[in-house]
Amino acid sequence: MGLMVHKYGGTSVGSIERIKEVAKKIAEARDEGNDVVAVVSAMAGETDKLISLASEITDLPDEREMDLLMSSGERVTAALAAIALQTMGYPARSFTGRQVGIQTDDAHTRARITHIDAEPIRKTLEEGKVVVVAGFQGISSNQNVTTFGRGGSDTTAVALAAALKADLCIIYTDVEGVFSADPNTVSNARKLDKVSYDEMLEMASLGAKVLHNRAVEFAKKYDVPLLVKSTFKEGSGTLVTNEDESMEKVVVSGVTCDKKQAKLTIALVPDKPGIAGKIFGQIANAGVVVDMIIQNVSTAGITDISFTVPGGDVSKVEGEVKKIAEEIGAGGVTINESIAKVSIVGVGMQSHSGVAAQMFQTLAEENINIQMISTSEIKVSCVIDSKYSELAVRALHESFKIGEDD
Ligand code: ADP
Ligand code: ASP
Ligand code: MG
Known about the structure:
It is a single chain. The chain is α/β, with parallel strands linked by helices. The chain has a domain at 3-174: Carbamate kinase (3-Layer(aba) Sandwich). It has helices at 16-31, 46-55, 63-87, 119-126, 153-164, 197-205, 213-222, 245-248, 275-285, 314-327, 355-365, 389-399; strands at residues 3-8, 35-40, 92-95, 102-104, 113-116, 130-134, 137-140, 145-147, 168-173, 194-196, 226-230, 238-241, 254-258, 261-270, 293-295, 302-310, 332-336, 339-345, 372-376, 379-385. The strands form 4 sheets. The chain has an 8-stranded mixed β-sheet, with helices on both faces. Strands 5-4-7-8 form a 4-stranded mixed β-sheet. Strand 15 (293-295) and strand 16 (302-310) form a beta hairpin. The longest helix is centred in the first third of the chain and has 25 residues, at 63-87. The model has no long low-confidence stretch (mean pLDDT 95). The structure holds adenosine-5'-diphosphate, aspartic acid (ASP) and magnesium ion.
Protein backbone atom coordinates (compact mmCIF):
# COMPACT_ATOMS: atom_id res chain seq x y z
CA MET A 1 0.00 0.00 0.00
CA GLY A 2 1.27 3.43 -0.83
CA LEU A 3 1.43 6.05 -3.53
CA MET A 4 2.15 4.72 -7.00
CA VAL A 5 2.75 6.55 -10.24
CA HIS A 6 1.94 4.48 -13.32
CA LYS A 7 2.83 5.51 -16.85
CA TYR A 8 1.20 3.94 -19.89
CA GLY A 9 2.84 4.41 -23.31
CA GLY A 10 1.28 4.85 -26.73
CA THR A 11 0.82 1.18 -27.62
CA SER A 12 -0.65 0.47 -24.18
CA VAL A 13 -3.40 3.05 -24.81
CA GLY A 14 -3.54 2.48 -28.60
CA SER A 15 -7.30 1.77 -28.80
CA ILE A 16 -10.44 2.21 -26.70
CA GLU A 17 -10.21 -1.48 -25.75
CA ARG A 18 -6.68 -0.96 -24.50
CA ILE A 19 -7.63 2.19 -22.59
CA LYS A 20 -10.31 0.10 -20.82
CA GLU A 21 -7.67 -2.56 -20.00
CA VAL A 22 -5.39 0.14 -18.60
CA ALA A 23 -8.29 1.44 -16.49
CA LYS A 24 -8.65 -2.10 -15.09
CA LYS A 25 -4.95 -2.21 -14.14
CA ILE A 26 -5.29 1.14 -12.38
CA ALA A 27 -8.44 -0.09 -10.63
CA GLU A 28 -6.58 -3.21 -9.41
CA ALA A 29 -3.88 -1.04 -7.86
CA ARG A 30 -6.63 1.01 -6.17
CA ASP A 31 -8.32 -2.17 -4.89
CA GLU A 32 -5.01 -3.15 -3.31
CA GLY A 33 -5.23 0.07 -1.30
CA ASN A 34 -2.86 2.29 -3.24
CA ASP A 35 -3.26 5.91 -4.26
CA VAL A 36 -2.64 6.07 -8.01
CA VAL A 37 -1.43 8.80 -10.30
CA ALA A 38 -1.55 7.55 -13.91
CA VAL A 39 0.38 9.37 -16.62
CA VAL A 40 -0.68 8.57 -20.16
CA SER A 41 0.85 9.02 -23.61
CA ALA A 42 -1.02 9.86 -26.78
CA MET A 43 -2.59 6.84 -28.51
CA ALA A 44 0.01 5.08 -30.69
CA GLY A 45 0.74 7.05 -33.88
CA GLU A 46 -1.21 10.15 -32.77
CA THR A 47 1.80 12.41 -32.11
CA ASP A 48 3.27 11.50 -35.52
CA LYS A 49 -0.10 12.27 -37.11
CA LEU A 50 -0.27 15.69 -35.46
CA ILE A 51 3.28 16.52 -36.61
CA SER A 52 2.53 15.47 -40.16
CA LEU A 53 -0.57 17.69 -40.24
CA ALA A 54 1.67 20.69 -39.54
CA SER A 55 4.21 19.52 -42.10
CA GLU A 56 1.47 19.65 -44.73
CA ILE A 57 1.52 23.41 -44.17
CA THR A 58 5.22 24.16 -43.74
CA ASP A 59 8.65 22.55 -43.19
CA LEU A 60 9.50 24.90 -40.33
CA PRO A 61 6.40 25.35 -38.17
CA ASP A 62 6.61 27.68 -35.17
CA GLU A 63 7.63 25.66 -32.13
CA ARG A 64 5.16 27.32 -29.77
CA GLU A 65 2.31 26.26 -32.01
CA MET A 66 3.79 22.75 -32.37
CA ASP A 67 3.74 22.36 -28.61
CA LEU A 68 0.06 23.26 -28.34
CA LEU A 69 -0.66 20.89 -31.23
CA MET A 70 1.39 17.95 -29.89
CA SER A 71 0.13 18.30 -26.32
CA SER A 72 -3.41 17.55 -27.51
CA GLY A 73 -2.70 13.84 -28.15
CA GLU A 74 -2.02 13.14 -24.47
CA ARG A 75 -5.07 15.13 -23.37
CA VAL A 76 -7.38 12.92 -25.44
CA THR A 77 -6.04 9.77 -23.76
CA ALA A 78 -6.13 11.28 -20.26
CA ALA A 79 -9.79 12.25 -20.58
CA LEU A 80 -10.75 8.88 -22.09
CA ALA A 81 -8.90 6.98 -19.33
CA ALA A 82 -10.67 9.04 -16.64
CA ILE A 83 -14.03 8.37 -18.33
CA ALA A 84 -13.23 4.63 -18.45
CA LEU A 85 -12.38 4.62 -14.72
CA GLN A 86 -15.51 6.58 -13.78
CA THR A 87 -17.65 4.18 -15.81
CA MET A 88 -16.18 1.30 -13.78
CA GLY A 89 -17.18 3.09 -10.59
CA TYR A 90 -13.76 4.52 -9.69
CA PRO A 91 -13.75 8.28 -9.09
CA ALA A 92 -11.09 9.80 -11.34
CA ARG A 93 -10.08 13.19 -12.75
CA SER A 94 -7.89 13.96 -15.73
CA PHE A 95 -5.51 16.91 -15.84
CA THR A 96 -3.20 18.65 -18.28
CA GLY A 97 0.40 19.38 -17.33
CA ARG A 98 -0.48 22.95 -16.41
CA GLN A 99 -3.36 21.86 -14.21
CA VAL A 100 -1.05 19.67 -12.12
CA GLY A 101 1.45 22.49 -11.73
CA ILE A 102 4.26 21.28 -14.03
CA GLN A 103 6.29 24.41 -14.75
CA THR A 104 9.03 24.41 -17.38
CA ASP A 105 11.53 26.68 -19.09
CA ASP A 106 10.45 28.10 -22.44
CA ALA A 107 12.49 25.82 -24.73
CA HIS A 108 9.57 24.75 -26.89
CA THR A 109 9.52 21.09 -28.04
CA ARG A 110 12.35 20.19 -25.62
CA ALA A 111 11.38 21.98 -22.42
CA ARG A 112 12.86 21.13 -19.03
CA ILE A 113 10.79 20.93 -15.89
CA THR A 114 11.76 23.70 -13.46
CA HIS A 115 9.21 23.22 -10.70
CA ILE A 116 6.22 21.08 -9.78
CA ASP A 117 3.52 22.26 -7.42
CA ALA A 118 2.27 18.91 -6.14
CA GLU A 119 -0.69 20.41 -4.26
CA PRO A 120 -3.44 19.92 -6.89
CA ILE A 121 -2.59 16.21 -7.13
CA ARG A 122 -2.36 15.73 -3.36
CA LYS A 123 -5.74 17.37 -2.90
CA THR A 124 -7.39 15.17 -5.52
CA LEU A 125 -5.83 12.01 -4.04
CA GLU A 126 -7.08 13.03 -0.60
CA GLU A 127 -10.57 13.19 -2.09
CA GLY A 128 -10.14 9.50 -2.90
CA LYS A 129 -9.83 10.00 -6.66
CA VAL A 130 -7.46 8.52 -9.20
CA VAL A 131 -5.41 11.28 -10.85
CA VAL A 132 -4.87 10.85 -14.60
CA VAL A 133 -2.28 13.19 -16.09
CA ALA A 134 -1.64 14.00 -19.76
CA GLY A 135 2.06 13.20 -20.22
CA PHE A 136 4.85 15.06 -22.03
CA GLN A 137 3.70 18.62 -21.28
CA GLY A 138 3.96 21.55 -18.92
CA ILE A 139 3.59 25.32 -18.88
CA SER A 140 6.29 27.98 -19.23
CA SER A 141 6.55 31.08 -17.05
CA ASN A 142 4.81 33.08 -19.77
CA GLN A 143 1.88 30.64 -19.76
CA ASN A 144 2.68 28.85 -23.01
CA VAL A 145 2.16 25.10 -23.30
CA THR A 146 5.50 23.30 -23.66
CA THR A 147 6.43 19.68 -24.43
CA PHE A 148 9.46 17.67 -23.31
CA GLY A 149 10.66 16.04 -26.54
CA ARG A 150 9.61 12.74 -28.09
CA GLY A 151 9.09 10.03 -25.50
CA GLY A 152 8.68 12.69 -22.80
CA SER A 153 5.69 11.16 -20.99
CA ASP A 154 8.16 8.99 -19.05
CA THR A 155 9.61 12.23 -17.70
CA THR A 156 6.20 13.46 -16.53
CA ALA A 157 5.77 10.22 -14.59
CA VAL A 158 9.18 10.18 -12.92
CA ALA A 159 9.10 13.91 -12.15
CA LEU A 160 5.67 13.57 -10.52
CA ALA A 161 6.89 10.52 -8.59
CA ALA A 162 9.82 12.61 -7.32
CA ALA A 163 7.63 15.62 -6.42
CA LEU A 164 5.06 13.44 -4.62
CA LYS A 165 7.74 11.23 -3.04
CA ALA A 166 5.88 8.24 -4.45
CA ASP A 167 6.71 4.77 -3.19
CA LEU A 168 7.09 3.42 -6.73
CA CYS A 169 7.00 4.60 -10.34
CA ILE A 170 6.07 1.92 -12.86
CA ILE A 171 6.63 2.57 -16.56
CA TYR A 172 4.21 0.23 -18.35
CA THR A 173 5.22 -0.31 -21.97
CA ASP A 174 5.07 -2.77 -24.88
CA VAL A 175 8.16 -4.82 -23.88
CA GLU A 176 8.84 -6.76 -20.67
CA GLY A 177 11.53 -4.44 -19.37
CA VAL A 178 14.90 -3.02 -20.33
CA PHE A 179 16.85 -5.47 -22.49
CA SER A 180 20.53 -5.86 -23.40
CA ALA A 181 19.52 -4.52 -26.87
CA ASP A 182 16.26 -3.57 -28.54
CA PRO A 183 14.33 -6.88 -28.39
CA ASN A 184 12.65 -5.91 -31.65
CA THR A 185 16.06 -5.94 -33.39
CA VAL A 186 18.00 -8.62 -31.49
CA SER A 187 15.96 -11.78 -30.98
CA ASN A 188 18.08 -13.19 -28.13
CA ALA A 189 18.33 -9.89 -26.23
CA ARG A 190 18.31 -10.56 -22.49
CA LYS A 191 15.92 -8.82 -20.11
CA LEU A 192 17.92 -7.08 -17.39
CA ASP A 193 16.53 -7.68 -13.90
CA LYS A 194 18.34 -4.61 -12.60
CA VAL A 195 20.16 -1.75 -14.28
CA SER A 196 21.97 1.16 -12.64
CA TYR A 197 20.74 4.73 -13.08
CA ASP A 198 24.04 5.61 -14.80
CA GLU A 199 23.90 2.77 -17.32
CA MET A 200 20.24 3.46 -18.00
CA LEU A 201 20.99 7.15 -18.50
CA GLU A 202 23.63 6.30 -21.12
CA MET A 203 21.40 3.71 -22.80
CA ALA A 204 18.43 6.10 -22.93
CA SER A 205 20.59 8.93 -24.29
CA LEU A 206 22.14 6.63 -26.89
CA GLY A 207 18.93 5.36 -28.47
CA ALA A 208 17.22 2.86 -26.11
CA LYS A 209 13.89 4.62 -26.36
CA VAL A 210 12.27 2.39 -23.73
CA LEU A 211 12.94 5.28 -21.30
CA HIS A 212 13.27 9.02 -21.94
CA ASN A 213 16.71 10.16 -20.80
CA ARG A 214 15.34 13.07 -18.74
CA ALA A 215 13.14 10.57 -16.87
CA VAL A 216 16.26 8.67 -15.85
CA GLU A 217 17.98 11.93 -14.84
CA PHE A 218 15.08 12.67 -12.46
CA ALA A 219 15.03 9.12 -11.12
CA LYS A 220 18.74 9.29 -10.33
CA LYS A 221 18.65 12.77 -8.85
CA TYR A 222 15.69 12.10 -6.57
CA ASP A 223 16.26 8.38 -5.96
CA VAL A 224 12.91 7.40 -7.46
CA PRO A 225 12.36 3.64 -7.39
CA LEU A 226 11.67 2.95 -11.05
CA LEU A 227 10.30 -0.25 -12.54
CA VAL A 228 9.84 -0.90 -16.29
CA LYS A 229 7.20 -3.53 -17.06
CA SER A 230 4.94 -4.81 -19.78
CA THR A 231 1.33 -3.63 -19.87
CA PHE A 232 0.34 -6.86 -21.58
CA LYS A 233 2.33 -9.63 -19.87
CA GLU A 234 2.88 -10.53 -16.22
CA GLY A 235 6.52 -10.42 -15.15
CA SER A 236 9.03 -8.86 -12.80
CA GLY A 237 10.25 -6.21 -15.28
CA THR A 238 13.47 -4.24 -14.82
CA LEU A 239 14.34 -2.26 -11.72
CA VAL A 240 16.34 0.91 -12.40
CA THR A 241 18.28 1.58 -9.24
CA ASN A 242 21.62 2.45 -7.64
CA GLU A 243 24.69 0.53 -8.76
CA ASP A 244 25.56 -2.59 -6.78
CA GLU A 245 28.43 -5.06 -6.84
CA SER A 246 26.69 -7.59 -9.08
CA MET A 247 26.36 -4.95 -11.80
CA GLU A 248 30.09 -4.22 -11.85
CA LYS A 249 30.88 -7.81 -12.79
CA VAL A 250 29.23 -7.36 -16.17
CA VAL A 251 31.51 -5.54 -18.62
CA VAL A 252 28.91 -4.65 -21.22
CA SER A 253 25.25 -4.56 -20.19
CA GLY A 254 23.69 -3.18 -23.32
CA VAL A 255 24.09 -2.30 -26.98
CA THR A 256 22.15 0.65 -28.35
CA CYS A 257 21.62 2.36 -31.66
CA ASP A 258 20.54 5.90 -32.50
CA LYS A 259 19.63 6.57 -36.12
CA LYS A 260 18.23 10.01 -35.47
CA GLN A 261 21.52 11.89 -35.81
CA ALA A 262 23.05 13.77 -38.71
CA LYS A 263 26.70 14.55 -39.45
CA LEU A 264 27.80 17.94 -40.73
CA THR A 265 31.31 18.41 -42.12
CA ILE A 266 32.90 21.77 -42.77
CA ALA A 267 35.77 21.20 -45.21
CA LEU A 268 39.00 23.16 -45.56
CA VAL A 269 38.65 25.22 -42.40
CA PRO A 270 41.51 27.64 -41.62
CA ASP A 271 43.19 26.17 -38.52
CA LYS A 272 43.46 29.18 -36.22
CA PRO A 273 42.23 30.19 -32.77
CA GLY A 274 38.59 31.22 -32.41
CA ILE A 275 37.11 29.31 -35.33
CA ALA A 276 35.60 26.43 -33.34
CA GLY A 277 34.24 28.89 -30.78
CA LYS A 278 32.54 30.83 -33.55
CA ILE A 279 30.99 27.78 -35.24
CA PHE A 280 29.72 26.08 -32.09
CA GLY A 281 28.70 29.34 -30.43
CA GLN A 282 26.30 30.03 -33.30
CA ILE A 283 24.89 26.50 -33.16
CA ALA A 284 24.35 26.82 -29.41
CA ASN A 285 22.53 30.13 -30.00
CA ALA A 286 20.12 28.24 -32.25
CA GLY A 287 19.36 26.00 -29.22
CA VAL A 288 20.81 22.93 -30.93
CA VAL A 289 22.82 20.35 -28.98
CA VAL A 290 26.02 19.11 -30.62
CA ASP A 291 27.06 15.59 -29.71
CA MET A 292 30.30 14.31 -31.25
CA ILE A 293 32.96 16.61 -32.69
CA ILE A 294 36.03 15.64 -34.69
CA GLN A 295 38.72 17.97 -36.00
CA ASN A 296 41.25 16.44 -38.35
CA VAL A 297 44.98 16.97 -37.91
CA SER A 298 45.74 20.14 -39.78
CA THR A 299 47.94 20.12 -42.86
CA ALA A 300 49.26 23.43 -44.13
CA GLY A 301 47.02 25.31 -41.70
CA ILE A 302 43.83 23.79 -43.10
CA THR A 303 41.58 21.22 -41.37
CA ASP A 304 38.14 19.59 -41.56
CA ILE A 305 35.61 19.75 -38.72
CA SER A 306 32.79 17.19 -38.43
CA PHE A 307 30.09 17.11 -35.80
CA THR A 308 26.74 15.49 -35.15
CA VAL A 309 23.41 17.08 -34.24
CA PRO A 310 19.93 15.55 -33.81
CA GLY A 311 18.57 14.83 -37.31
CA GLY A 312 15.46 16.94 -36.67
CA ASP A 313 17.64 20.00 -35.99
CA VAL A 314 19.53 20.06 -39.31
CA SER A 315 17.20 22.62 -40.85
CA LYS A 316 17.74 24.89 -37.82
CA VAL A 317 21.54 25.02 -38.22
CA GLU A 318 22.17 24.36 -41.90
CA GLY A 319 21.83 27.98 -43.06
CA GLU A 320 23.89 29.33 -40.18
CA VAL A 321 26.71 26.81 -40.62
CA LYS A 322 26.90 27.52 -44.36
CA LYS A 323 27.04 31.24 -43.63
CA ILE A 324 29.87 30.83 -41.13
CA ALA A 325 31.76 28.51 -43.50
CA GLU A 326 31.64 31.27 -46.11
CA GLU A 327 32.67 33.97 -43.63
CA ILE A 328 35.74 32.07 -42.43
CA GLY A 329 36.73 31.08 -45.96
CA ALA A 330 36.12 27.34 -45.53
CA GLY A 331 35.64 24.98 -48.47
CA GLY A 332 32.00 24.05 -47.98
CA VAL A 333 29.53 22.11 -45.88
CA THR A 334 28.33 18.55 -46.42
CA ILE A 335 25.45 16.97 -44.55
CA ASN A 336 25.04 13.23 -44.06
CA GLU A 337 21.74 12.14 -42.58
CA SER A 338 22.24 8.41 -43.14
CA ILE A 339 24.42 7.76 -40.13
CA ALA A 340 23.83 5.73 -36.99
CA LYS A 341 25.52 5.86 -33.62
CA VAL A 342 26.01 2.39 -32.15
CA SER A 343 27.14 2.16 -28.56
CA ILE A 344 28.09 -0.33 -25.90
CA VAL A 345 27.29 0.55 -22.28
CA GLY A 346 28.37 -1.03 -19.00
CA VAL A 347 29.56 0.05 -15.56
CA GLY A 348 32.01 -2.88 -15.60
CA MET A 349 34.00 -1.18 -18.39
CA GLN A 350 35.61 1.10 -15.80
CA SER A 351 37.77 -1.75 -14.57
CA HIS A 352 38.36 -3.64 -17.84
CA SER A 353 40.80 -2.89 -20.62
CA GLY A 354 40.42 -3.78 -24.27
CA VAL A 355 36.67 -3.16 -24.44
CA ALA A 356 36.90 -0.42 -27.08
CA ALA A 357 39.41 -2.48 -29.09
CA GLN A 358 37.00 -5.43 -29.11
CA MET A 359 34.23 -3.15 -30.34
CA PHE A 360 36.37 -1.78 -33.21
CA GLN A 361 37.54 -5.28 -34.19
CA THR A 362 33.99 -6.60 -34.20
CA LEU A 363 32.87 -3.81 -36.54
CA ALA A 364 35.95 -4.37 -38.74
CA GLU A 365 35.17 -8.08 -39.05
CA GLU A 366 31.78 -7.08 -40.48
CA ASN A 367 33.54 -4.62 -42.83
CA ILE A 368 31.84 -1.69 -41.18
CA ASN A 369 33.78 1.56 -41.37
CA ILE A 370 33.91 3.73 -38.24
CA GLN A 371 33.42 7.43 -39.03
CA MET A 372 33.59 8.89 -35.51
CA ILE A 373 34.30 7.59 -32.01
CA SER A 374 33.47 8.90 -28.57
CA THR A 375 33.95 7.36 -25.15
CA SER A 376 33.07 7.95 -21.53
CA GLU A 377 33.84 5.87 -18.44
CA ILE A 378 30.92 3.55 -19.07
CA LYS A 379 30.30 3.70 -22.84
CA VAL A 380 31.94 3.59 -26.26
CA SER A 381 30.07 4.99 -29.28
CA CYS A 382 30.88 4.71 -32.99
CA VAL A 383 29.23 6.55 -35.85
CA ILE A 384 28.73 4.27 -38.86
CA ASP A 385 26.68 4.20 -42.07
CA SER A 386 23.05 3.72 -40.98
CA LYS A 387 22.51 0.86 -43.42
CA TYR A 388 24.77 -1.32 -41.24
CA SER A 389 23.18 -0.39 -37.92
CA GLU A 390 21.20 -3.60 -37.30
CA LEU A 391 24.16 -5.73 -38.39
CA ALA A 392 26.46 -3.79 -36.05
CA VAL A 393 24.11 -4.10 -33.06
CA ARG A 394 23.72 -7.86 -33.56
CA ALA A 395 27.46 -8.40 -34.07
CA LEU A 396 28.35 -6.42 -30.93
CA HIS A 397 25.67 -8.18 -28.90
CA GLU A 398 27.14 -11.50 -30.04
CA SER A 399 30.76 -10.46 -29.51
CA PHE A 400 30.22 -9.36 -25.90
CA LYS A 401 28.10 -12.46 -25.19
CA ILE A 402 25.28 -10.65 -23.45
CA GLY A 403 22.32 -12.44 -25.02
CA GLU A 404 20.09 -15.25 -23.73
CA ASP A 405 21.64 -18.69 -24.08
CA ASP A 406 19.95 -20.51 -26.95
P1 ADP B 1 6.01 3.57 -24.99
O1 ADP B 1 5.08 3.95 -26.09
O2 ADP B 1 5.45 2.58 -24.04
O3 ADP B 1 6.61 4.76 -24.32
P2 ADP B 1 8.40 3.25 -26.59
O4 ADP B 1 8.13 2.85 -28.00
O5 ADP B 1 8.72 4.66 -26.33
O6 ADP B 1 7.17 2.75 -25.70
O7 ADP B 1 9.58 2.35 -25.99
C1 ADP B 1 9.49 0.94 -26.03
C2 ADP B 1 10.31 0.42 -27.20
O8 ADP B 1 11.68 0.69 -26.95
C3 ADP B 1 10.26 -1.07 -27.41
O9 ADP B 1 9.16 -1.46 -28.19
C4 ADP B 1 11.60 -1.37 -28.05
O10 ADP B 1 11.48 -1.57 -29.44
C5 ADP B 1 12.43 -0.12 -27.82
N1 ADP B 1 13.73 -0.39 -27.23
C6 ADP B 1 14.91 0.07 -27.71
N2 ADP B 1 15.94 -0.36 -26.98
C7 ADP B 1 15.41 -1.12 -25.98
C8 ADP B 1 15.99 -1.83 -24.89
N3 ADP B 1 17.31 -1.87 -24.68
N4 ADP B 1 15.16 -2.51 -24.06
C9 ADP B 1 13.82 -2.48 -24.26
N5 ADP B 1 13.23 -1.82 -25.29
C10 ADP B 1 14.01 -1.14 -26.14
N1 ASP C 1 3.37 11.13 -27.40
C1 ASP C 1 4.73 11.59 -27.29
C2 ASP C 1 5.59 10.90 -28.35
O1 ASP C 1 5.08 10.13 -29.14
C3 ASP C 1 5.30 11.42 -25.91
C4 ASP C 1 5.35 10.01 -25.40
O2 ASP C 1 4.71 9.11 -25.95
O3 ASP C 1 6.05 9.77 -24.41
O4 ASP C 1 6.75 11.15 -28.42
MG1 MG D 1 8.20 6.00 -24.84
